[in-house]
Each structure stands twice: as C-alpha cells, then as structure tokens.
Design a protein that fits this description.
Organism: Aldrovandia affinis
Number of strands: 0
Distance between the termini: 32 Å
Membrane topology: Multi-pass membrane protein
Helix content: 55-70%
GO molecular function, one term: intracellularly calcium-gated chloride channel activity
Strand content: under 5%
Radius of gyration: 29 Å
Protein name: Protein tweety homolog
Pfam family, one: Tweety
Order of helices and strands: HHH
Amino acid sequence: MSTARVDYIAPWWTYWLHNFPHINLRFQPVDRIFRPEDDNYQQSLIFLVCVAAAGLGLTLLFLAVYLSCLCCCRREKDEDSKRPQTCCVTWAAVIAGLVICSAVGVGFYGNSETNDGVYQLTYSLYDANHTLRGIDSLVSGVRLHSRDGR
C-alpha cells in the first residue's frame, strides 16, 4: 500500500461560488469564510439556490407563455405562400435543445466531481484505517514487552 498523500484540489466552480456575494435571507451581507455550521452561511447558500430556482422558474414561465401564444394566436396561413412560417418554432426548438444539452452536460460534470470526491474520501478512510492498524500492532508490541519486563 502506497502511503503517498493525495492533496485535494478544489474545482474552479467552487472558487467562483465562494467569491460570489454571500447574502442571507434577510438580505444582509455574510462573511465569505467557509463555516457550514453557521446559520448565516447556510442561509446564504439557500439564497443562492433560491436565485437559481427563480431564474429557472422565470425561464420556464416565459417559455410556456411563448408557446401558448404561438399555439393560440397563430396567424392564418397565407394561401399564396407555399412555405409555412416556422422560423420562430424552429429557433425555439433549437434554443430549448441547447439548454437541455447544457443541463445534461452540467449534470455529467457534477456526477464526475461527486465521484472524484467519494473516491478521495474512500481512499483517505482506507489510508487512515491502515495507519491506525499499524499503530495498534505497535502499541500491542510495547504492551507485551512491558509485561515481560524487558
């Protein structure tokens, strides 16, 4: 078993989120010091999640209104025109596809980061267990020698 220490390197997005302004639920600034047990720090993280959820909700609302208007307020087709006007629908589908593909990509990235973190945690626990076992046989040997009087 190799005893080489593997240092943890935080991903870029953790630095970006850490430098983002921290505001609690009462809209008061919070220190950027990493203290996950502090209530104000937890509220600042909840605030960031709420901002992201509000952005997602507004986007979905806009998309729903747009598609409803597109379906309900459809103009009558011009009889002389051979080509239907589907430009807006096509662009809406392309943009929705890009947003969905981006969300899937972010999900895969998050899954990869989580997998790396769990691997490092497992490796650290295994290494700590191996070290403690080595110390325990050393301590046991010292106890045997002290009983014999040697």
